[in-house]
Specification:
The chain is α/β, with parallel strands linked by helices. The chain folds into 3 domains: about 5-90, Orthogonal Bundle (Arc Repressor Mutant, subunit A), CATH 1.10.10.10; about 95-165 and about 270-300, Periplasmic binding protein-like II (D-Maltodextrin-Binding Protein, domain 2), CATH 3.40.190.10; about 170-265, D-Maltodextrin-Binding Protein, domain 2. About 40% of the residues lie in helices and about 20% in strands. The protein has helices at about 5-20, 20-30, 35-45, 65-90, 105-120, 135-140, 205-215, 230-235, 285-295, and strands at about 50-55, 60, 95-105, 125-130, 150, 160-170, 170-175, 195-200, 220-225, 240-245, 260-265, 270-280. Strands 4-3-5-12-6 form a 5-stranded mixed sheet, with helices on both faces. Strands 10-7-11 form a 3-stranded antiparallel sheet, covered by helices on one side. Strand 8, helix 7 (about 205-215) and strand 9 (about 220-225) form a beta-alpha-beta unit. Helix 1 packs across helix 2 (about 20-30). The longest helix is centred in the first third of the chain and has 28 residues, at about 65-90.
Length: about 300
Amino acid sequence: MEPRFTLRQIRYFLAAARAGSVNQAAFDVSISAPSISAAISQLEEQYNIQMFVRHHSHGLLMTEDGKKFFAAAKSFFEQAEALESQAQGLGKTISSVVHAGCFVTLAPVIIPLLSNAFSQKHPESRLSFTEGHQAQMLDSLREGIIQMAFTYELSIGRDLVFTPLGEVAPYCILPNDHRLAGLDRIDLTELAEDRMIFLDLPKSREYYMSLFDKAKISPKISHRTTSPEVVRVMVSHGLGYSILAMPTRHSVAMDGTEFAIRPLVGSFPNLCVGLLASSETITTHTYESVYEVSKRALEQVLLPI
Protein backbone atom coordinates (compact mmCIF):
# COMPACT_ATOMS: atom_id res chain seq x y z
CA MET A 1 0.00 0.00 0.00
CA GLU A 2 1.38 3.39 -0.96
CA PRO A 3 1.39 6.04 1.81
CA ARG A 4 -1.21 8.79 1.49
CA PHE A 5 1.13 11.43 2.87
CA THR A 6 4.28 13.17 1.66
CA LEU A 7 7.58 13.70 3.48
CA ARG A 8 6.93 17.42 3.26
CA GLN A 9 3.61 17.05 5.13
CA ILE A 10 5.31 14.98 7.83
CA ARG A 11 8.12 17.52 8.14
CA TYR A 12 5.69 20.41 8.55
CA PHE A 13 3.56 18.47 11.04
CA LEU A 14 6.61 17.64 13.19
CA ALA A 15 7.76 21.25 13.07
CA ALA A 16 4.35 22.44 14.25
CA ALA A 17 4.17 19.83 17.00
CA ARG A 18 7.61 20.77 18.30
CA ALA A 19 7.05 24.50 18.06
CA GLY A 20 3.47 24.49 19.32
CA SER A 21 2.75 27.29 16.90
CA VAL A 22 2.09 27.53 13.19
CA ASN A 23 4.00 30.80 12.89
CA GLN A 24 7.03 29.49 14.76
CA ALA A 25 7.00 26.28 12.73
CA ALA A 26 6.89 28.34 9.53
CA PHE A 27 9.93 30.27 10.72
CA ASP A 28 11.79 27.09 11.71
CA VAL A 29 11.44 25.44 8.30
CA SER A 30 11.53 28.65 6.22
CA ILE A 31 8.07 28.27 4.72
CA SER A 32 4.85 30.26 4.87
CA ALA A 33 2.40 29.75 7.76
CA PRO A 34 -0.45 28.81 5.39
CA SER A 35 1.70 25.97 4.03
CA ILE A 36 2.11 24.58 7.56
CA SER A 37 -1.62 24.88 8.24
CA ALA A 38 -2.47 23.24 4.90
CA ALA A 39 -0.17 20.26 5.56
CA ILE A 40 -1.75 19.66 8.97
CA SER A 41 -5.27 19.96 7.59
CA GLN A 42 -4.48 17.55 4.76
CA LEU A 43 -3.17 14.94 7.20
CA GLU A 44 -6.19 15.35 9.46
CA GLU A 45 -8.60 15.01 6.54
CA GLN A 46 -6.71 12.08 5.02
CA TYR A 47 -6.82 10.00 8.20
CA ASN A 48 -9.89 11.55 9.87
CA ILE A 49 -7.83 12.46 12.94
CA GLN A 50 -7.71 15.72 14.87
CA MET A 51 -4.01 16.30 15.49
CA PHE A 52 -4.22 19.58 17.40
CA VAL A 53 -6.55 21.69 19.48
CA ARG A 54 -6.04 25.24 18.28
CA HIS A 55 -6.05 28.04 20.87
CA HIS A 56 -5.24 31.62 20.00
CA SER A 57 -3.59 32.17 23.35
CA HIS A 58 -1.87 28.80 23.75
CA GLY A 59 -1.13 28.02 20.09
CA LEU A 60 -1.30 24.34 19.13
CA LEU A 61 -1.94 21.60 21.66
CA MET A 62 -1.58 18.01 20.51
CA THR A 63 -4.51 15.67 21.05
CA GLU A 64 -3.95 12.10 22.24
CA ASP A 65 -4.28 10.92 18.64
CA GLY A 66 -1.87 13.66 17.62
CA LYS A 67 0.70 12.47 20.17
CA LYS A 68 0.49 8.90 18.86
CA PHE A 69 0.82 10.13 15.28
CA PHE A 70 3.74 12.31 16.34
CA ALA A 71 5.66 9.35 17.81
CA ALA A 72 5.18 7.28 14.64
CA ALA A 73 5.90 10.22 12.34
CA LYS A 74 9.07 11.15 14.25
CA SER A 75 10.45 7.60 13.93
CA PHE A 76 9.54 7.45 10.24
CA PHE A 77 11.08 10.82 9.42
CA GLU A 78 14.31 9.97 11.25
CA GLN A 79 14.64 6.80 9.17
CA ALA A 80 14.00 8.82 6.00
CA GLU A 81 16.73 11.27 7.01
CA ALA A 82 19.13 8.38 7.69
CA LEU A 83 18.39 6.94 4.24
CA GLU A 84 18.98 10.34 2.63
CA SER A 85 22.29 10.71 4.43
CA GLN A 86 23.43 7.24 3.39
CA ALA A 87 22.36 7.83 -0.21
CA GLN A 88 24.31 11.08 -0.35
CA GLY A 89 27.36 9.24 0.92
CA LEU A 90 26.98 6.60 -1.76
CA GLY A 91 26.54 9.29 -4.38
CA LYS A 92 29.99 10.68 -3.52
CA THR A 93 31.72 7.35 -4.04
CA ILE A 94 32.63 5.51 -7.24
CA SER A 95 31.33 2.01 -7.87
CA SER A 96 34.04 -0.63 -7.52
CA VAL A 97 32.90 -2.00 -10.89
CA VAL A 98 31.32 0.34 -13.43
CA HIS A 99 29.29 -1.59 -15.99
CA ALA A 100 29.58 0.20 -19.32
CA GLY A 101 28.59 -0.57 -22.87
CA CYS A 102 30.51 0.27 -26.02
CA PHE A 103 29.42 0.38 -29.65
CA VAL A 104 31.26 -2.41 -31.42
CA THR A 105 33.03 -0.17 -33.95
CA LEU A 106 34.32 2.08 -31.16
CA ALA A 107 35.40 -0.78 -28.92
CA PRO A 108 38.95 -1.39 -30.30
CA VAL A 109 39.93 2.17 -29.41
CA ILE A 110 37.72 3.08 -26.47
CA ILE A 111 37.89 -0.06 -24.34
CA PRO A 112 41.69 -0.33 -23.90
CA LEU A 113 42.20 3.44 -23.81
CA LEU A 114 39.56 4.15 -21.18
CA SER A 115 40.18 1.01 -19.12
CA ASN A 116 43.78 2.09 -18.69
CA ALA A 117 43.03 5.77 -18.07
CA PHE A 118 40.25 5.04 -15.58
CA SER A 119 42.27 2.52 -13.56
CA GLN A 120 45.13 5.02 -13.28
CA LYS A 121 42.80 7.78 -12.07
CA HIS A 122 40.67 5.53 -9.85
CA PRO A 123 42.73 2.45 -8.87
CA GLU A 124 39.97 1.30 -6.51
CA SER A 125 37.52 0.92 -9.40
CA ARG A 126 37.42 -0.63 -12.86
CA LEU A 127 35.36 -0.38 -16.03
CA SER A 128 33.67 -3.58 -17.18
CA PHE A 129 32.62 -3.34 -20.83
CA THR A 130 29.91 -5.00 -22.89
CA GLU A 131 30.11 -4.59 -26.68
CA GLY A 132 27.19 -4.37 -29.06
CA HIS A 133 25.41 -2.38 -31.72
CA GLN A 134 23.22 0.65 -31.01
CA ALA A 135 19.95 -1.18 -30.40
CA GLN A 136 21.68 -3.48 -27.91
CA MET A 137 23.22 -0.51 -26.09
CA LEU A 138 19.83 1.19 -25.79
CA ASP A 139 18.11 -1.97 -24.54
CA SER A 140 20.86 -2.71 -22.00
CA LEU A 141 20.65 0.80 -20.58
CA ARG A 142 16.88 0.69 -20.25
CA GLU A 143 17.00 -2.73 -18.59
CA GLY A 144 19.69 -1.60 -16.14
CA ILE A 145 22.24 -4.15 -17.36
CA ILE A 146 24.78 -1.37 -17.95
CA GLN A 147 25.09 2.01 -16.23
CA MET A 148 26.28 3.98 -19.25
CA ALA A 149 27.37 3.46 -22.85
CA PHE A 150 29.97 4.90 -25.21
CA THR A 151 28.21 5.17 -28.52
CA TYR A 152 27.14 7.32 -31.44
CA GLU A 153 24.30 9.83 -31.36
CA LEU A 154 21.93 7.60 -33.32
CA SER A 155 18.19 7.05 -32.68
CA ILE A 156 18.30 8.00 -29.01
CA GLY A 157 14.97 8.36 -27.23
CA ARG A 158 14.03 11.11 -24.81
CA ASP A 159 14.35 8.77 -21.84
CA LEU A 160 18.15 8.76 -22.16
CA VAL A 161 20.72 11.57 -21.98
CA PHE A 162 23.56 11.82 -24.50
CA THR A 163 26.67 13.84 -23.57
CA PRO A 164 28.98 14.50 -26.57
CA LEU A 165 32.70 13.72 -26.33
CA GLY A 166 33.83 14.28 -29.92
CA GLU A 167 33.20 13.36 -33.53
CA VAL A 168 34.38 10.99 -36.24
CA ALA A 169 34.28 11.79 -39.95
CA PRO A 170 33.18 9.29 -42.63
CA TYR A 171 35.89 8.01 -44.97
CA CYS A 172 36.34 5.57 -47.82
CA ILE A 173 38.45 2.41 -47.85
CA LEU A 174 39.56 0.97 -51.19
CA PRO A 175 41.70 -1.89 -52.50
CA ASN A 176 45.29 -0.69 -52.98
CA ASP A 177 45.06 -1.30 -56.73
CA HIS A 178 41.71 0.49 -57.15
CA ARG A 179 41.66 3.06 -59.95
CA LEU A 180 40.88 5.84 -57.44
CA ALA A 181 43.35 4.79 -54.74
CA GLY A 182 45.91 7.34 -55.95
CA LEU A 183 43.58 10.29 -55.31
CA ASP A 184 43.80 12.45 -52.19
CA ARG A 185 40.01 12.43 -51.75
CA ILE A 186 37.21 10.24 -53.06
CA ASP A 187 34.07 11.54 -54.74
CA LEU A 188 31.24 9.10 -53.99
CA THR A 189 29.72 9.71 -57.42
CA GLU A 190 32.84 8.12 -58.91
CA LEU A 191 31.96 4.89 -57.09
CA ALA A 192 28.38 4.65 -58.32
CA GLU A 193 29.10 1.56 -60.45
CA ASP A 194 31.54 -0.13 -58.05
CA ARG A 195 30.67 -2.98 -55.73
CA MET A 196 30.31 -1.97 -52.09
CA ILE A 197 30.93 -3.94 -48.90
CA PHE A 198 28.29 -2.56 -46.52
CA LEU A 199 28.71 -2.43 -42.73
CA ASP A 200 25.14 -3.30 -41.85
CA LEU A 201 24.52 -2.57 -38.17
CA PRO A 202 21.14 -1.62 -36.64
CA LYS A 203 20.62 2.15 -36.35
CA SER A 204 24.00 3.00 -37.98
CA ARG A 205 22.99 1.64 -41.41
CA GLU A 206 20.68 4.64 -41.80
CA TYR A 207 23.63 6.99 -41.32
CA TYR A 208 25.70 5.30 -44.02
CA MET A 209 22.80 5.32 -46.45
CA SER A 210 22.24 9.03 -45.75
CA LEU A 211 25.71 9.73 -47.16
CA PHE A 212 24.72 8.20 -50.49
CA ASP A 213 21.42 10.04 -50.43
CA LYS A 214 23.35 13.29 -50.01
CA ALA A 215 25.58 12.33 -52.96
CA LYS A 216 22.43 11.41 -54.93
CA ILE A 217 23.58 7.89 -55.81
CA SER A 218 22.54 4.37 -54.83
CA PRO A 219 25.38 2.07 -53.78
CA LYS A 220 25.69 -1.32 -55.49
CA ILE A 221 25.95 -3.42 -52.35
CA SER A 222 27.52 -6.80 -53.06
CA HIS A 223 27.95 -7.97 -49.46
CA ARG A 224 26.52 -6.99 -46.07
CA THR A 225 28.21 -7.77 -42.77
CA THR A 226 27.99 -6.68 -39.14
CA SER A 227 31.77 -7.04 -38.68
CA PRO A 228 34.12 -4.11 -39.38
CA GLU A 229 36.99 -6.59 -39.77
CA VAL A 230 35.13 -8.56 -42.43
CA VAL A 231 34.63 -5.26 -44.27
CA ARG A 232 38.35 -4.48 -44.15
CA VAL A 233 39.44 -7.95 -45.25
CA MET A 234 37.02 -8.05 -48.16
CA VAL A 235 38.11 -4.60 -49.33
CA SER A 236 41.79 -5.49 -49.03
CA HIS A 237 41.15 -8.55 -51.24
CA GLY A 238 39.67 -6.38 -53.96
CA LEU A 239 36.04 -7.38 -53.46
CA GLY A 240 34.76 -3.81 -53.29
CA TYR A 241 35.04 -0.52 -51.43
CA SER A 242 33.37 0.59 -48.21
CA ILE A 243 32.49 3.67 -46.19
CA LEU A 244 33.31 3.72 -42.49
CA ALA A 245 33.04 6.26 -39.68
CA MET A 246 35.08 5.23 -36.67
CA PRO A 247 38.23 6.36 -34.88
CA THR A 248 40.23 3.28 -35.96
CA ARG A 249 41.90 4.16 -39.26
CA HIS A 250 44.50 1.41 -39.59
CA SER A 251 45.12 0.26 -43.16
CA VAL A 252 45.97 -3.38 -42.41
CA ALA A 253 43.27 -6.05 -42.33
CA MET A 254 43.17 -8.89 -39.83
CA ASP A 255 44.87 -11.32 -42.25
CA GLY A 256 47.74 -8.91 -42.89
CA THR A 257 46.57 -7.62 -46.26
CA GLU A 258 46.45 -3.85 -46.82
CA PHE A 259 44.00 -1.34 -48.25
CA ALA A 260 43.85 2.42 -48.89
CA ILE A 261 42.06 4.98 -46.70
CA ARG A 262 40.85 8.24 -48.23
CA PRO A 263 38.64 11.13 -46.98
CA LEU A 264 35.56 12.05 -48.99
CA VAL A 265 35.01 14.95 -51.33
CA GLY A 266 32.18 17.21 -50.21
CA SER A 267 30.48 18.13 -46.97
CA PHE A 268 29.12 15.08 -45.15
CA PRO A 269 27.85 15.00 -41.56
CA ASN A 270 30.21 13.65 -38.94
CA LEU A 271 29.06 11.13 -36.36
CA CYS A 272 29.01 12.40 -32.79
CA VAL A 273 30.49 10.06 -30.15
CA GLY A 274 29.49 10.44 -26.54
CA LEU A 275 28.42 8.98 -23.24
CA LEU A 276 24.83 7.79 -22.95
CA ALA A 277 22.96 7.16 -19.69
CA SER A 278 19.66 7.65 -17.91
CA SER A 279 18.84 10.99 -16.32
CA GLU A 280 19.23 9.38 -12.88
CA THR A 281 22.71 8.03 -13.66
CA ILE A 282 24.17 11.32 -14.91
CA THR A 283 23.71 12.88 -11.47
CA THR A 284 25.97 10.31 -9.76
CA HIS A 285 29.62 10.75 -8.84
CA THR A 286 30.42 7.54 -10.74
CA TYR A 287 29.10 9.02 -13.98
CA GLU A 288 30.92 12.31 -13.44
CA SER A 289 34.19 10.47 -12.81
CA VAL A 290 33.86 8.33 -15.95
CA TYR A 291 32.92 11.35 -18.04
CA GLU A 292 35.89 13.44 -16.86
CA VAL A 293 38.36 10.63 -17.58
CA SER A 294 36.76 9.95 -20.97
CA LYS A 295 36.74 13.60 -21.98
CA ARG A 296 40.50 13.86 -21.50
CA ALA A 297 41.47 10.43 -22.81
CA LEU A 298 39.44 10.60 -26.02
CA GLU A 299 40.78 13.98 -27.12
CA GLN A 300 43.60 12.13 -28.89
CA VAL A 301 41.31 9.95 -31.03
CA LEU A 302 38.17 12.05 -31.65
CA LEU A 303 37.64 15.24 -33.60
CA PRO A 304 36.64 18.24 -31.45
CA ILE A 305 32.98 19.21 -31.58
